[in-house]
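Submission checklist for the structure archive. All mandatory fields must be present; incomplete records are returned to the submitter.

[x] Identifier: Transport permease protein
[x] Organism: Caenimonas aquaedulcis
[x] Residue count: 253
[x] Sequence attached
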Amino acid sequence: MNLYAVRAIYRFEMARTFRTLVQSIVSPVVSTSLYFVVFGSAIGSRIPEVGGVSYGAFIVPGLVMLSLLTQSISNASFGIYFPKFTGTIYELLSAPVSTLELVIAYVGAAATKSVMLGIIILATAALFVPLKIMHPGFMLLFLALTALTFSLLGFIIGIWADGFEKLQFIPTLIITPLTFLGGSFYSIDMLPAFWQKVTLFNPVVYLISGFRWSFYGVSDVSVGVSLVMTLVFMGLCLAGVAWIFKTGYRLKS
């Protein structure tokens, strides 16, 4: 493996994050903090507890997951789209760097940034609500797997997009609504029976449920099912990336 190339691309992507610190880190943290204040205080005064957990603390895993999903996709999609936009992607494709090394570098950098952001948001949340983590190992596992999975999805979107508008299409119109409807602010047990069954078709439910379980030991679905669904989604994304590089889709034209 060409570790020099992997390290160079990885460091370049990480340096881009620190050059745009306000946009990459500060803005998502401030936005999520506003959710803590607005939803935690406004709705929390009407819903004291959910599943034995105070409402302000209950929404923390969902809000972390909301930022993690959107930022993982945004970081990875922009990271690979910009070389396409400027034409430097052809230098990468003609360099002695394998497709696996490209994916490791770009997706690894995007996932690292997202995990950093998730940890900062958790630290910020602890300033507003009493936060406890019952299963820190599983918390880190879900954090890492979700960041990697959605960074892979963002990588696919970055290859697929042929304009800046398309970069925002899936995160804005699909991922964010699915996250809001996936139990970020409520337990699906609070829904009518029919909508509980419909909600189970939303894959984000399993991510949030498993992540929330690692904090409080409460979940809408079994943690084992959540973990399996996360791995299945990651497998689908890996298959998508492998197909793109095998066929040259949107890379050779």
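[x] Structure attached
Curator remark: The mean pLDDT is 84. The first helix runs from residue 3 to 19.
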